[in-house]
Every structure is written in structure tokens, then in C-alpha cells.
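Weekly modeling sync, notes
Attendees: AB, CL, MP (scribe)

Item 1: holo prediction request
CL wants a bound-state model with glutamine before deciding which constructs to order. AB pointed out that an apo prediction alone won't tell us much about the pocket. Agreed to run with the ligand included and paste results into these notes for async review.

Input as submitted:
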Amino acid sequence: MNLKGLTIKSFHDGLVEKEFSAREVTREFLDVIHAEDGKIGAYLSVFEDNALYEAECVDSMIKEGKKITPLAGVPLAVKDNMLIKGTRTTAASKILEHYEASYDATVIEKLRKEHAVFLGKTNLDEFAMGASTENSGFHVTKNPHDLERVPGGSSGGSVAAVAANMALAALGSDTGGSIRQPSAFCGVVGMKPTYSAVSRSGLIAMASSLDQIGPITKTVEDAELLFHAIRGKDVYDATSAENDIVHEFGDLPPEAIKNLKIGIPREFFIDGIDSRVTHAIEEAVARLKTLGFSFKEISLPHSKYALAVYYIIMPAEVSANLARFEGVRYPGIPEVKHKANNLRDLYFKTRGEGFGAEPRRRILLGTYVLSSGYYDAYYAKAQKVRRLIRDDFEDAFKSVDVILAPVTPTPAFKIGEKSSDPLEMYLSDIFTVQANLAGLPGISIPVKNYTVGSGELPVGFQLIGKPFHERDLFGIGKLYQRGE
Ligand code: GLN
């Protein structure tokens, strides 16, 4: 079977037409995982028996003539910072190496109702902190297009799994670009929904005012299907919201979609951006113009402060969220428990040995910016600038409907190239953090027929939409991919 060409849509059609069974397809994906993942390292755990069982259940439903949903039998990979009941959930941290989830994340519960198949849990930068998946407490994931390069991060495992045909689609989380940036590096579609569109219940929190779960797929059409299945208000997440605009799915007529005006923010085309990325973006814009879209230059004057603001607010929230891992409330590290002399010693040893360098760095930074005497100078000020960044978008959306920008300043970089210089790594997020700070939906779409270097590295372009206007991103993205 041609797994490479398979999408959620074509899988569903084939299943209904009885061209193959769900079990057969799941088996094929598991075989690719066995054959390829030794090289790539996308997965942290694989649920072979469970996955086959879930697929067989879908086959029985079809045999009994029951109607199946668009996601029934779809073999999915899940980033290992989302809880699947009864399975190990580590956030790629040694501090959670022995933690078994006691309930399903809301997104998992929703996908179970659709009878999706869960293949396994994927690697990430520890607690989703990073842009290369080199910060995992377990192993480095490689870019399937060039094994010497990073897949991006922090959802590097989920993205690599989809790009290497080791899952039909995947779930990732995006706090400052972790779905969109690796998707651009690996040539797949990745979408961060509007803040609050998808429940965060059962997602191991990194920075709660920024985190969102979203789909990673091969096509925009698939991303829409998966988003549709996981979104919605949830009693377990007080920040989750239902919004009417989201409901207007389905295919808007192409003429209506082409009326959407696309803004190009001047500030996103800065010195230092790789010329290959600039060319790719020009190529995407030219194609969209051929399709009939009109463009307008816009300004987001405060976006130059976005990275600085993100690296104050995010660590502040990280330091609060990660306080709960002290060796008592979660299993902690058994060897440390035996060594600890008293409670204080247990805290110190668990956190000292359990957290890797990046979480430690962010806990320190976050504690500093929240500490008395510095709170006003850093945290409070960053919150004010966050407001200005949001206002810029609100202003821009008075004259355009969607904003087009690069996703990353460079194509995928080499493993080890940036890992010793955190600041250099943080710069990878320069075009993605704005959407998180402003709570807006953003999608990364591979630029068609555009690859660079011998490993044929893909480049992505980003569309950012108004709050709850995911359908605009899907609408434009689908037309772009179909070339209509
Ligand atoms: N690269 C960013 C960071 O390191 C984004 C991480 C994310 O979105 N989870 O914080």
C-alpha cells in the first residue's frame, strides 16, 4: 500500500469502499515504525497490541454495517505530554519517567469517541521546551528528510512520525511555535488553534496562557478534520470556549474564500532571515496571487518585542507549573527517594536530578522575573507589551482578513548546531510566538515544489487568522494545496 499518498480523507474513503481493513493499515504503519524508527527516533512508546485491537473494533463496526466517523480507524501518534489513561506519559523528562496517566486528556477522549487508533507516544523537547527535540531527556529525534538535521521542536517526534509515514496524522502542542516550526522543517501541515478553542485538560502544562493542542497532518483538509474532532468547550478546562464562527466549516465557495484579503507584515521580513526562506515565501505569495488572492502590506510595530516578551511570560508560567514536580505528588525517581534524608532533601534531589538543563534554566529565569523587586520591571511590563502586540493584530485585522508570514528564519539546522547556545535556539521562534501571545490561530503549510539542499529540505509558510477564524486558514490552505 502507498502509505505516503494516504491521507485521513483517502483512508476513510478506502475503508468505506472496503479496499482495505483498518487492521491492515494499522499493521503497515506499525511495520514502518519497526523498520524506520530506529534511525529517526520519533516514538517514546508504541502500543502495538492496543492499536491493532482498536483497528479491529472499527473493522467489526464496518462489517456490522454501522456508519463510521471520518476519523474511525485513523492511526494517530500523540505527543508524550498528553495523557492516555494507563500509559506512561513522560513529557520526555526523567522526572516523569515512571508516571502512568490515570485519565485520558479531553482530546484523547474525544478521539476515542471517533474510534481513532493510537499508535504510540512521541518524543519532544523536555516539557515542550525547545525548538529541535534535542532537549528530550531520552534521545534526539532526526529529520526524516536529512538524518543529520533536527526535525524542529518541540513536537519533533509527532512531526517526524507523520513525515516518515509512521502515523497518518498526529497531535502536537504549541506554546511558542512547537507545532508550526517542526511542521515547516519536515514538510507537513501543522496548526495551532485559537487559544481556548481546544481543551488543555490532560495536557502537561508548560505555559498555561499560551499552550494549545493542535493537528499535524499531510494536508490542510486533514488538519481541518482533526481540528474539528478535538475542539470545543470542556468542563475540565475553564479557559476553553465554544465559538460560533468555528462552526462555519465545510467548503466555502472558492469565490468567497478568494475575497479574503491577505496582509504581509513588513516587520517579518527582516535582515538575517535566510534567503532560501525569503524565496520560498515569495513563491507561495506568487502562487496565491495566481489563484486570485489580493495582498496588502501591513505593519505590526510591536512584533519586534515579541520574542523578549515571550521569554519573560513563558518562563514565569513554567516556574509556577513545574513547581508540582517535587518527588511527592508524582512517582519521582525511585533511586532518589531511597537516598533522600528528609523532605527538603527529597525536593532538592528529585528536581536536581530529574530536570534537564533547559527546564532548570527556565525555572530559574521565571522565578527571577516574578521575584519581588523585579516583578514590575519584567513580568508586569511584559504583560503590557503583550497587550500592545495583541492590539497591533486587532488593528491589522481591520484592513486584512489573514496574515501571511514565514514560519522560521531558516530551514532545518544541523543537530548540535545550536544546542550549546540557548539564545541562538530561542531565535528560531521569532516568527511563531506572536500568534501565541495574541491567542490567534496559525497554520504552517509546506511551500509547494520548494525544497533546498541535497536532503531536499522543505520550507513552510504561515497563515495567521482572526480569533476563531480557523476556517479562513483552512479555506486558503486547501485552495493553495489543490492549486485551484
Ligand atoms: N521553541 C519554543 C520554546 O522553546 C516553543 C516551545 C513550544 O511551543 N512548546 O519555548
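Recorded for review: The mean pLDDT is 95.
Action items: CL to compare against the apo run; MP to circulate these notes.
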